[in-house]
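User: tokens in, sequence out, please.
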């Protein structure tokens, strides 16, 4: 311990003599370790931390699929009953469905609260018990007995202020009083999952707070709108469960006449289902910030090598006085440990702020975002990372420092002692490694930037400018009675008329689904005049719209004519998209043709419109636009085109809708431009972060090249003076220094290209209409690095060319 404290005091005194080096090292390490710690906190909270359920590793999610399709589908209630009743690999299974509940408390107008309709055994499957009250009873999953609700801890605090007497009290949900029968634990948080695997919600996603019994759906065998979560029996594997459930599914569908597809069941762990879509992007961000830290460590190692070379004479004297190599190695390495510990402590402080900034800037649909924090396990990992970085940038200089011949070190000219061939080679290898890491980061960043640019600049075939989007939820008793369709249609009719009378409004339209929220209401196009084998029918998305829909969004009409108000007498007249026409009527004119779409209704095509990317910017979809009065849904999305901004119209839109019915909820009111931008929020976020890491890597590489050359030039002053004295001109000296810089840079570029080949194949799934081997991106990245290296080398080269031979020859 005495030797340790002696070495610590000596290290601190030594470092105090190099304030510039210490400041550079602490800044590099604190930013690098802090960034890695904050990103690891995100990865740990989202991807690695187990869910707060009993034995979460045995929880699985079941989805239906077929051999013919690549994407899994939601589940059917009858199929769920078959799995639960006959499975030997599942201990139990529960079915649930996403719901947005209209909740009224003390406010004039209801709010939409995220919730789930669940089977009574849902919480038992998760292994969760209410802290107050009870679970649902089996009898409560039946018509007339389902007016009960279980609240999350946060909903209990908000609506009942944490009163234990809330059990047995009522809360108005959907306009109907519901009895509170249970309160969930504070730690309970069920992750968001969409019934459609390809659907990503483009709205602010809140936690699930309302849970109601799910009524069994045993009448409609075509209703695939649920998800099933199961618990594996102890001793059974995922593969065994999938094989058994797939066999049960195939045996079941063979008994159902209308089911001819080769149905199967996809079984995935709960963690994979929730985070599978973002895991690659998060690991990529962590790898990128780790690469930046590695580049920073290489820079520090270069500086430490230079300091070790300059201290050769000191070490030689200590060796001559009897210091052992182990003691010299430790005393040299302790400088790095002191810097790493100090930098790590600053980095941990920085990580708390970085995590808060990440959560604030991250897209709202990032799973488990509310659970992201810096935990004790992350702090331990940060401590280990600090020690690892100390070894990474300190071990090589320490090992080199003890390979000193005392006699030669004492006799060598101190001005040239640090510029041996061996020392130059070590520094060039470090720079080459730094450049290789930078090349990988720049290429990956360039590919994602190009992909994001392609996403934003592609042809959309709809105009979102000056359009406001208002969602209205018709979740009240009067909209769910026997005359519900007429009541809902009457509300939509009046809302379209009244919104159209607002000052400055040019047109108003209605659609049944949130724009940019993915594909929904997908059915098969069946033509009686041209039957195809079962399972090979083209599919299309249904949207119930007003006749003004395509004119409000300025979607081009390619053939036929638009829907008209007079089509109320012909409610089966529909528009189809160009892709639907191409897939269902290849080489034919679809106008006037009749077809069915997932039911018995015969529709007639009266017009063909362009493939507007109104579901997703990433892909077109086959669409069928049906007049809303044919099936008015319980939710409506109004599109209001006006030169006024949404902020100026918002109050007028709310007043107009609440004048019709003050008990309807308006959960979303924003511009359509914002909705389109939000749909690319994930891509924008990861591109922004990676761009920052790429710029940081480029700057660190520039500093590294400059530092090596500047040190080399300073140690070769006499050599340059002799060259000038013997007739060498400035251009030749600059070429000499540039050539010296080019060796590690070019070598690092080739090594980086080899590494980038593997990295780009890994991120292929994140790219949109961009090849992983895009030559423009690769050449642009290399060109950027070469320009940066040239600029970094220019100043040292110029200093070499301006050497005064008389002054340098008079040096020792």
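Assistant: Sequence out:
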């Amino acid at each position: 311990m005495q030797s340790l404290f002696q070495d610590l005091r000596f290290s601190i005194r030594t470092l105090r003599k190099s304030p510039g080096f210490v400041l550079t090292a602490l800044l590099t390490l604190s930013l690098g370790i802090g960034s890695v710690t904050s990103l690891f906190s995100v990865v740990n909270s989202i991807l690695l931390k187990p869910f707060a359920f009993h034995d979460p590793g045995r929880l699985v999610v079941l989805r239906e699929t077929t051999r013919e399709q690549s994407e899994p589908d939601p589940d059917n209630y009858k199929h769920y009953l078959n799995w639960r009743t006959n499975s030997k690999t599942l201990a139990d299974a529960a079915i649930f469905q996403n719901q947005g509940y209209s909740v009224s408390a003390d406010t004039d107008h209801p709010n939409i609260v995220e919730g789930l309709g669940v089977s009574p055994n849902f919480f038992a499957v998760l292994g969760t018990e209410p802290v107050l009250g009870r679970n649902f009873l089996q009898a409560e999953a039946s018509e007339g007995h389902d007016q009960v609700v279980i609240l999350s801890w946060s909903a209990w605090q908000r609506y009942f202020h944490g009163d234990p007497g809330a059990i047995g009290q009522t809360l108005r949900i959907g306009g109907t009083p519901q009895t509170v029968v249970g309160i969930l634990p504070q730690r309970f948080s069920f992750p968001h999952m969409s019934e459609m695997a390809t659907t990503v919600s483009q709205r602010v996603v809140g936690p699930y707070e309302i849970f109601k019994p799910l009524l069994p759906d045993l009448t409609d065998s075509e209703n695939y709108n649920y998800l099933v979560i199961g618990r594996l029996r102890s001793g059974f594997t995922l593969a065994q469960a999938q094989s058994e459930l797939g066999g049960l599914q195939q045996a079941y569908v063979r008994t159902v006449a209308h089911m001819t597809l080769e149905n199967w069941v996809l079984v995935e762990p709960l963690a994979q289902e929730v985070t599978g879509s973002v895991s690659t992007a998060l690991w990529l961000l962590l790898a990128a910030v780790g690469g930046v830290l590695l580049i920073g460590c290489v820079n520090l190692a270069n500086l430490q090598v230079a300091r070790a070379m300059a201290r050769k004479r000191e070490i030689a004297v200590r060796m001559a006085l009897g210091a052992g190599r182990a003691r010299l190695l430790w005393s040299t390495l302790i400088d790095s440990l002191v810097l790493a510990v100090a930098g790590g402590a600053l980095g941990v402080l920085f990580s708390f702020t970085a995590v808060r900034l990440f959560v604030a800037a991250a897209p709202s649909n990032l799973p488990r975002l509310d659970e992201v924090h810096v935990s004790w396990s992350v702090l331990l990992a940060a401590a280990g990372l600090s020690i690892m970085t100390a070894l990474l940038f300190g071990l090589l200089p320490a090992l080199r420092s003890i390979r000193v011949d005392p006699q030669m070190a004492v006799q060598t000219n101190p001005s040239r002692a640090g510029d041996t061939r061996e020392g130059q080679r070590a520094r060039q290898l470090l720079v080459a490694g730094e450049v290789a890491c930078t090349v990988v980061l720049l290429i990956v960043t360039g590919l994602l930037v190009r992909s994001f640019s392609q996403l934003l600049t592609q042809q959309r075939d709809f105009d979102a400018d000056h359009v406001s989007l208002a969602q209205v939820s018709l979740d009240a008793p009067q909209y769910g009675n026997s005359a519900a369709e007429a009541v809902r249609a009457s509300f939509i009719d009046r809302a379209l008329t009244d919104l159209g009378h607002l000052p400055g409004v040019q047109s108003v339209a209605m659609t049944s689904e949130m724009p940019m929220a993915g594909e929904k209401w997908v059915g098969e196009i069946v033509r009686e005049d041209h039957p195809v084998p079962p399972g090979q029918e083209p599919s299309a998305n249904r949207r119930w719209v007003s006749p003004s829909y395509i004119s409000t969004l300025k979607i081009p009409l390619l053939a036929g004519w638009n829907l008209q108000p007079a089509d109320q007498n012909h409610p089966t007249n529909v528009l189809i998209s160009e892709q639907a026409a191409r897939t269902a009527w290849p080489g034919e004119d679809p106008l006037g043709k009749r077809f069915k779409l997932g039911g018995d209704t015969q529709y007639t095509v009266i017009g063909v419109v362009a493939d507007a990317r109104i579901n997703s910017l990433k892909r077109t979809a086959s669409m069928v636009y049906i007049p809303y009065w044919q099936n008015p849904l319980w939710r409506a999305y109004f599109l209001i085109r006006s030169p006024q901004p949404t902020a100026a119209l918002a109050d007028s839109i709310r007043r107009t809708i609440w004048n019709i019915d003050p008990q309807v909820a308006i959960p979303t009111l924003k511009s359509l431009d914002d909705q389109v931008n939000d749909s690319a929020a994930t891509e924008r976020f990861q591109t922004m972060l990676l761009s920052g890491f790429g710029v940081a890597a480029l700057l660190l590489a520039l500093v590294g090249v400059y530092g090596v050359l500047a040190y080399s030039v300073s140690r070769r002053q006499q050599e340059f003076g002799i060259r000038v004295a013997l007739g060498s001109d400035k251009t030749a000296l600059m070429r000499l220094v540039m050539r010296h810089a080019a060796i590690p840079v070019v070598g690092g570029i080739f090594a980086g290209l080899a590494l980038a080949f593997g990295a780009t194949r890994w991120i292929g799934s994140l790219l949109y209409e961009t090849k992983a081997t895009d030559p423009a991106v690769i050449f642009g990245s290399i060109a950027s690095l070469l320009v940066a290296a040239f600029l970094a080398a220019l100043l040292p080269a110029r200093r070499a060319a301006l050497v005064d031979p008389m002054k340098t020859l008079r040096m020792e």
